[in-house]
């Protein structure tokens, strides 16, 4: 089974009565079976996203080959997405390796430069039927070592979003409407009116980054208001690490490592299943 781009996978999701796709951060290969187990349990297509750091750690071809193999054997339609990348050469490497979706993050740049670079990425991606995500506005928190302080958060304006989509033709747009990347202990305050206005102005799938701290009620409302891709990463990582700390601490040096990892993977599956149910 070949990998799907985001646009095609979203159509599969909607045929299965999902309103949005979760896009789940893979941090290591040991986690991968847990992702497919969650997709099978929920009859959901699967979008897996990789940071540039994880791609360098594991290798692009290993990721593509492993995910393609599992997608085929499990019969789960799957998209492999490069998340938050500002390096055009790294994006080209991912496309050449077989990634089916990429994100160019130029949110730190003036809008004119962000538009110009996003168009370059689209020119690279279109011939390979690779979908392209861009970001407009500054989302706070930490993502793969990049930190945006709370005082540097910039909410996405309706006018800028409309211009950006018109001038780039991007497939999906990540917007800043009140969420924060990383481990967020408070409650995110989603600007639902801003989201609704951007949805009407752009007419394309919008992306919610920083889902940690978003209540189930807010998540469901955001999905109904135009969010069609939701990034989920921190909650899975926290659960996996916490469970591994428990099992490794109790284990013996001659125990099989898989016995330490199975409970961690089960915890990841539980998080994914819970999140996927919010997107119906």
Automatic annotation (TrEMBL):
Cell inner membrane is among the record's keywords: no
GO molecular function, one term: aldehyde-lyase activity
A GO biological-process term: carbohydrate metabolic process
Annotated Zn(2+) 2 binding sites: 105, 135
Cofactors (names): Zn(2+)
Coiled-coil regions listed in the entry: none
Binding sites annotated in the UniProt record for Zn(2+) 1: 84, 181, 209
Top-level taxon in the UniProt lineage: Bacteria
Pfam families listed in its UniProt record: F_bP_aldolase
Listed transmembrane segments: none
The entry's keywords: Metal-binding, Zinc
List of residues binding dihydroxyacetone phosphate: 182, 210-212, 231-234
Name the record gives this protein: Class II fructose-bisphosphate aldolase
Organism: Candidatus Pantoea deserta
Lineage, highest ranks first: Bacteria, Pseudomonadati, Pseudomonadota, Gammaproteobacteria, Enterobacterales
